[in-house]
Amino acid sequence: MKKTDFLIGRRKSFYDFYIEIYVFVYFLKEVLKGEIPAKHFIRFLKRLLFFLSKMKLNKYVKTGKYIKMNLYVPVFPSKEFFKACRKVLVSNDRMPCISVLMSVTSACRYNCEHCYQKLDKGKDVDIDLLCETAKKLDSMGVAFFNIEGGEPFLVYDKLKKLCESISVGEIWVNSTGDGMTLEKLRELKSIGVRGIMFSLHSPDPEKINLFMQNDKAWDNLTKGVSLCHEAGLEVAANTCILREDYFNGNFQRIAALAKDLGISIIQLIKPKPSGGWLGADLNYFSEQDLYFIEDTVNRFNNEKEYREYPFIYAQIIDEKSDMFGCTAGGTDRFYINAKGDVQPCEFLNISFGNIKAEDFDLIYQRMRNAFEKSGDKWLCETCSKHIASVVKENNISVLPLSKELSEQVINNWDRGNEADFYKRVVQL
Questions:
Q1: CA-to-CA distance for 346 and 274, rounded, in angstroms?
Q2: Are residues 198 and 178 in contact, defined by beta-carbon separation less than 8 angstroms?
């Protein structure tokens, strides 16, 4: 594995300039070849530079010649990166979705209390159907594929087959490390997988095992990270911690542990009242708390003291109203669960239809019609109690809600105001 370098300060500014020049030349060539209308080129370039400007406070992760500016944007200068750039091409159509999360199985030997799939019971969708859907998404412009389970390494042949079905897309796999081997990782790397995301919710081995209710959780995690390094794969961590962990030193301890483990990116996930925590009162992060967390993240990403620490990608920052807002529902990303339900987001336990029962294109269009514009409300939080009440009223033991019951939520939600990026980019 090539050495990972973290770019901040003047070095990052230099690379920002380099990326802008490279992007200009790359797409100018497409204009000269007639692949992009010349009359749209300047507007496209303005839109693209505005898109890139939204990442200026991030710490960049450089591995070899490739630079990661945002967790869900493919590395520059890959073909997947330039595919993602086409999101802001001038067009009369909606801007395409460029990121998807797909589950290959609900099988898992863990029992995490917060799991958003806690009640996603049912038979796994046929892998051939899932692969056909992935091919459609590939052709529609999706450039970032995040593949998960359950635990995908428990159904390795399915995982491999889904990865092989993707032609142009950066692929990351979510895993606990359970069932992972060096041979499997090397094979995945050979077919285009870029990295593995592990769950790291505490710096304490015993608490990890307790939270995930598996006495091998810590060992599987640390062994898995080591195997990824040996296989030459990037490593990221998904970290879901409660409010107090940002104030009692646990966040700093997790960041330090991730640095020692050689993890290059930490995704901070705000606790969500979905799945196992559906309807729970988790929205106690005050506005002051969110400002504090944002300031902490920006310090870790931009101050010299933390230069060697992982890049911290925080959903609460990217999903702010003056950034991208909530990008669920195909605005920029969506979710297909292991049963084939098409959901706006993994944390929003509703369904727009199931690919086993209906054509994916029809389901996707139905979802995009409900997400015509972006919004700045976190629907997974604002709709949680309504979804929980529908579950109780109908004596439901399986999630997500059916397409028909989901309409009760969809018809009554408030998506808030259009987020800054989507409001302004179309004006450029």
A1: 9
A2: no
d(CA 242, CA 251): 10
From first to last of its 428 residues, what are the pLDDT tens digits of the chain? 568 999 999 999 999 999 999 999 999 999 999 999 999 999 999 999 999 999 999 999 999 999 999 999 999 999 999 999 999 998 888 899 999 999 999 999 999 888 999 889 899 999 999 999 999 999 999 999 999 999 999 999 999 999 999 999 999 999 999 999 999 999 999 999 999 999 999 999 999 999 999 999 999 999 999 999 999 999 999 999 999 999 999 999 999 999 999 999 999 999 999 998 898 887 678 999 999 999 999 999 999 999 999 999 999 999 999 999 999 999 999 999 999 999 999 999 999 999 999 999 999 999 999 998 889 999 999 999 999 999 999 999 999 999 999 999 999 999 999 999 999 998 98
**C-alpha atoms less than 13 angstroms from C-alpha of 411 in its C-beta half-sphere:** 6
Give the whole-angstrom CA distance, residue 38 versus residue 219.
Answer: 56
Q: Spell out the alpha helix ranges (H) of 6-40.
A: 9-32
Tell me, what amino acid is at 212? M
**Alpha-carbon distances, residue 400 vs 131, 265, 274, 406 (angstroms):** 22, 30, 10, 8
Task: Assess contact for 305 and 61: CB atoms under 8 A.
Answer: no
Query: Do the Cβ atoms of 217 and 209 come closer than 8 Å?
Result: yes
d(CA 218, CA 209): 6
